[in-house]
Amino acid sequence: MKRMRTLGIAAVSAALLALTLGSTTTTAEASTAKDRKVPTFKEFEKSTFQDKTGVYVVNGDEPVLDKKALKAYYRSMVGFEQELIVNTVGGVDDAWTNNGQNLLTYCVSTKFSRDYAAVVNAMAAGAAQWEAAANVDFTYVPAQDANCTTRNNSVVFSVEPTRTQQYIARAFFPSYPKSARNVLVNARSLQTSGSWTPSNILAHELGHILGFRHEHTRPEAGTCFEDNNWRALTPYDRASIMHYPQCNGSSSDLSMTATDRQGAALLYGP
Fold it and tell me: Which key words are in the record (predicted)?
């Protein structure tokens, strides 16, 4: 993440509402669909009929073979109208699978020296923001701090110091290999970034680790475009923790918003 130097959901298909509410959707109901709250995947799954063989049935008579396929169906119904955004690789969400989002162990290098405690605390506070929003879990393993590098296979990722002045911190996406799974932090810059608190800066980086892209790559930002390799989860959020303020963002403190929390819950469950 760079500092200044260079640093509600839209309309839902009537079919999804009908399945979610367990009723037949009339024309009048469909016309007010946009005013209704989009269900989470868990709510949608709970309301979807599942026969004795474990197969889900949608649209009255269409089989969906398992939970993974049902999640794909759910995303296809709500994803095209929803725009927090998740990175994609080859058109597939770049997110943790097989409960990997609850096994995110990490260490904090003792090479941070006098800044070590500050980074440990900022990481814990940043992680707590995502943990309170969605079914994710970051686990700090201090026993690995003395050997905290990408070569340490006892943790999923390492938090290490850097002296570069090009950014405050940088992270990685779920699809990255183990050799690239680290968070590099300029600890001095982390603690002297004005209204951007250390915990919010690292929460932003942990957002990338969960697969979330910069919100400002979306066309609504009007600047700082990166690429189109992402899928929308929530309505565009100019105040998002994943939106750089200097890219037409509206948050001065890089804090997490209700829309950020909603997007995380949509991807990983509440």
Answer: Hydrolase, Metal-binding, Protease, Signal, Zinc
